[in-house]
Amino acid sequence: MAYLDEGSGPPVVLLHGFPENAGTWRHQIEALTAGGHRVIALNLRGFGNSEHPSAADAYTVLHVVGDLVALLNHLGTGPVAVIGREWGALTAWGPAMMRPGLVRGVVAISAPPQISRAPVGLAEGTRSMFTDGRRFYLDYLQDVGPADDEFGRGPRASLRGIFHMLSHEYEAGDVDRRLVLEPGQVMLDIWPDPGQRPAWMPEDYFETLVDSYEKHGFTGSLAFYRNTDRSWWSARRATADRKRFGAGSSTLPAPDHFRAIRPCGQCRRR
Predict the structure, then answer these.
(1) 2-117+228-269: what fold?
(2) What is the location of CATH 3.40.50.1820 in the chain?
(3) Signed CA dihedral, 251, 252, 256, 260: sign only
(4) Which stretches make up the AB hydrolase-1 domain (predicted)?
């Protein structure tokens, strides 16, 4: 597991989203360390120079919480505040639900806690959104292969298209243009390459992303989307266990997935 560990004081963990790595928090790291905090920013599994497991189901919230628990034990931090964006936000809720003794607080940007309120998970639910051949992007990304190959043929152009889609510079007009594929379309039809990286993104950071995706491809990072419902069911189980064992419990039963916790010797600074 690759991570940054800077500063001293009350510890804060930063978790990035897709298609980023720990470097996305560069401005926040500077501010937090200047404000008297120890900052730990990790590359989630499947991203950057952290491990990229080959098993498609090795990217659930249980696995990522296991990674985080192993790292915090290795660093001996004590309770931490966890801040996450997108997949990092969904992950941030995990330790609060499953290992509450390790968490002082959660700041989740753009993703609510995965608390079960519906009979099916989000990925399964999106399959029935349209009956005219259109597909919601999350449904499209469930298929292993098409998006992996499409993005992987030109990581530099793909990353420019993804970040352009996420930015204010993308004139969507209708949110459907960003998130819904018409029949016959592929992801880069709705996330086209603008020909240059975003003006707000430093070249050196962009190049670290390009290098990583040229080396590893996109399958690991896309696996988070493909485990949306597995993670949802895991959170559902964790919520049920919390109710059973009490809101103050910090000793929830550890599922088999926590075998994903690795020896501390495999935790390393980037």
Answers:
(1) Rossmann fold (3.40.50)
(2) 2-117+228-269
(3) negative
(4) 10-113
Beta bridge partners, 15, equal: 42, 84
The pLDDT value recorded for residue 258 is 34
Residue in 93, 195, 188 with CA at minimum distance from that of residue 141: 188
Q: What is the DSSP string of the chain?
A: -EEEEE--SSEEEEE--TT--GGGGHHHHHHHHHTT-EEEEEPPTTSTTS---S-TTS-SHHHHHHHHHHHHHHHT--SEEEEEETHHHHHHHHHHHH-GGGEEEEEEES-------SSS-HHHHHTTS-SSS-EEHHHHHTSTTHHHHHHHT-HHHHHHHHHHHHSTTS--SSTHHHHEEPTT--HHHHS---SS--TTS-HHHHHHHHHHHHHH-SHHHHHHHHTHHHHHHHHHHHHHHHHHH-TT-------GGGGGPPPGGG-EE-
Q: Which of 263, 133, 243 is nearest to 185 (CA)?
A: 133
The closest of 149, 138, 166 to 218, measured between CA atoms, is 149
Mean pLDDT of 211-224: 97
For 98, list phi and psi in degrees, rounded to 5: -105, -30
pLDDT at residue 249, rounded to an integer = 41
Among residues 111, 42, 46, the alpha carbon closest in space to that of 77 is found at: 42
